[in-house]
What we know:
Elements: E1 9-17, H1 24-35, E2 42-49, H2 55-62, E3 68-73, H3 79-89, E4 92-98, H4 109-117, E5 122-126, E6 133-136, H5 140-156, E7 168-172, H6 173-180, H7 190-201, E8 205-209, E9 211-213, H8 222-241
Parallel strand pairs: 1-2, 1-4, 2-3, 5-8, 6-9
Antiparallel strand pairs: 4-7, 5-7
Helix pairs in contact: 1-2, 5-8, 6-7
Amino acid sequence: xxxxSPCQYYLSxxxxxxxxxxxxxxxxxxxxEYLNMQAFSWEIILVDDGxxxxxxxxxxxxxxxxxxxxxxxxxxxxxxxSVKSGILRSKGEIILFCDADLSTPIEELEKVLVFINSxxxxxxxxxxxxxxxxxxxQRWYREIMGKAFNFIVRSFILDGFKDTQCGFKCYxxxxxxxxxxxxxxxxxxxxxxxxxIARKMGFRIKEFPVKWMNSQGSKVRLIRDSSFMLLDLLRxxxxxxMGHYTI
Length: 247
């Protein structure tokens, strides 16, 4: 069993980060400015994934006070590990995780909360729906590899979703703690695993079109991380066949 913090805020935002000193201040200020205009209570949890730069120091100087919690992994453990750590430390009724570059603007949260308040348990952003607003595209070879990965996911493990990898996903607390309590994958393919587990548990999942813009300085290494992601898809399939996701 996982020990989790009690609910204290309406919204928790979990941000996994790895060597993000150049943009973490801008990201935190944008999020703070937006949330200060809302009527609900909130917190931000920054998970530094064993970075070697000044991300943590800059974050502390940017957002002082009790609204920011920082978790620091002693080594680079992976995005999935970091998101899980942040979610299990969160204290919000609603839990959003978003990327440190804010490729999906924080203002898209307004759409998310409409779906959450309409009864959906999990709301995931998508760059691949007809109404998705892609303002700055990735380089062509990254787009091709992304589409190939999604094709493999739909064919091999998880049909019914156009884009599992967009870094803008929101959970009701009950769903988040249940799903991530079972999560095993520590790297980028954790998105696929978490959606697979959520569907198996019977949670209602809404995929919605987001505004998205590619940001320079991606920490995804195309060849190495793509290979790891394919291996992790195989692990998810094996785990499923072995009954590890039998709830």
